[in-house]
Design a protein that fits this description.
The chain is mainly alpha-helical. It contains five helices and three strands.
């Protein structure tokens, strides 16, 4: 699943160190089947995400409102902090899953937070592109079993949670 967790987790988003704490509260609440606490923790996590997004929009607005010098350029905040291209994806998969001999690998999707590679048209590997996406992936992994138990639909079941060290 998430092969770059430690690589991306290296730093902290200034002013948003509580994302990891919020995630831990979500996981703990689900571990104890305390749905009220889980609901509260998820609500706080969502509010933190909204606050981060609004602050990013404000910063982008301030950057775009000041005059730019001819050589200056604005880098959008959604640009990947780590680009997982095919050679890096192959290397990480090989290091973490030596028993899986990947023959074909193609990029399936890339978004603001994650890049997904499809190995042998069977295994999907999702790599966070930005540090801020790591707690989101961890929250999703914690919530998936609960979601699966309440939905009459098939829910993707992560087989493993790999961490590059």
């Amino acid at each position: 699943m998430n092969l770059l967790m430690q690589v991306i987790r290296g730093g902290r988003v200034e002013g948003h160190g509580n994302l990891v704490t919020e995630h831990a509260r979500i996981v703990e609440a689900f571990a104890y089947a305390d749905l009220a606490a889980a609901r509260q923790a998820i609500t706080e996590h969502i509010e933190t995400g909204r606050r981060i997004a609004l602050e990013a929009i404000e910063r982008a607005g301030r950057v775009l409102q000041r005059p730019l010098r001819p050589y200056a350029h604005v880098v959008p905040e959604w640009i990947a902090e780590i680009v997982v291209d095919e050679p890096l994806a192959r290397l990480l998969i090989r290091e973490q899953l030596a028993s899986l001999a990947v023959r074909s690998l193609r990029r399936l999707a890339a978004g603001c937070d994650n890049t997904v590679w499809l190995a042998d048209d069977r295994w999907a590997f999702r790599f966070p592109r930005r540090e801020i996406a790591v707690p989101l992936v961890e929250s999703e992994l914690a919530v998936l079993p609960y979601v699966e138990s309440i939905l009459p639909l098939a829910v993707p079941a992560p087989l493993d949670r790999l961490v590059a060290g």
